[in-house]
Write a structure and sequence with these properties.
By secondary structure, the protein is an alpha+beta fold. Helix content is about 35%, strand content about 15%. Helix 5 packs across helix 6.
């Protein structure tokens, strides 16, 4: 019960927003950037990112370090927030509500006195329950993505230009509920675009020959409708701002949107 209460509190505090370091520390009661914990990420990728589960807290912290324009710490943290904002937004509930959730988070930039030091960003998030579907043997039904998730996953992947989508980023718990994690590679493989088609290649989901239009059409239609409404009423601009995108960043990566920042 204590762990459940802590997790609920983390979810309440984190609203998927870009904040400053002081605000993040106030939310969790300490500076998440240096919190000790169990390493969850691949040691071979530590130059780019590390993920740790904080000791004694229902909290996971991801730390990104800029290596190149393709591995930019600021963009990575923004992408983590932006995907969460889409999934959690009420307008997109018809797409994602019964498919999967994402652990609530906040993100911020870690300032340094050294102007030559690589940029670093931090994403602090609630610890998501479950194990990655990639950890189960193929003989286990949990190793396969349910067909009802195909459309929502595809809509999010294409709309945000997500790269590096793989079975390690989808968790399933004992109740059969799914959590999506590791969406830092957005705006990477393709420019975000609301014009989506039935995929020719999602091999990590299932063999493309088994993909049916019916698996994708409802989610795509619902996403397009929500996207159009958000574009018209300014909701999309608000989501981009909340994820920390400046006006120039939003116009660069969403050229088809009429982005108006006050």
């Amino acid at each position: 019960k204590g762990a459940e209460k802590q997790a609920a509190e983390a979810s309440r505090l984190f609203d998927n927003a870009w904040v400053d370091a002081a605000a993040a520390a106030r939310l969790v009661g300490f500076d998440p950037s240096g919190a000790p914990g169990e390493l969850l990420s691949d040691r071979s990728k530590r130059e780019w990112s590390t993920t740790v589960r904080v000791v004694g807290k229902p909290l996971v912290v991801k730390r990104f370090t800029s290596l190149s324009k393709y591995s930019d710490a600021r963009s990575a943290a923004q992408n983590e927030l932006l995907s969460r904002l889409f999934v959690a937004d009420a307008a997109f509930a018809p797409v994602f509500k019964n498919a999967f959730t994402m652990p609530a988070a906040v993100a911020y930039e870690k300032e340094s006195w050294n102007p030559f030091k690589a940029r670093r960003t931090i994403v602090a998030m609630e610890a998501a329950p479950g194990k990655s579907i990639g950890s189960f043997p193929l003989s286990d039904p949990r190793a396969w993505v349910p067909r009802r998730l195909y459309g929502p996953l595809f809509a999010l992947t294409r709309a945000l230009g997500l790269g590096d989508m793989n079975p390690g980023g989808l968790l399933v718990d004992d109740e059969g509920r799914y959590n999506l994690i590791d969406t830092e590679q957005g705006r990477y493989e393709s420019k975000p675009n609301p014009t989506m088609f039935v995929p020719a290649d999602m091999p990590w989901v299932v063999n493309e020959a088994l993909n049916d239009t019916e698996d994708y059409a409802p989610a795509i239609a619902a996403f397009r409708a929500a996207f159009a409404k958000g574009e018209a009423d300014g909701t999309l601009t608000a989501l981009l701002r909340k994820a920390g995108l400046t006006a120039s960043e939003a116009k660069r990566d969403y050229p088809h949107l009429d982005v108006k920042y006050p």
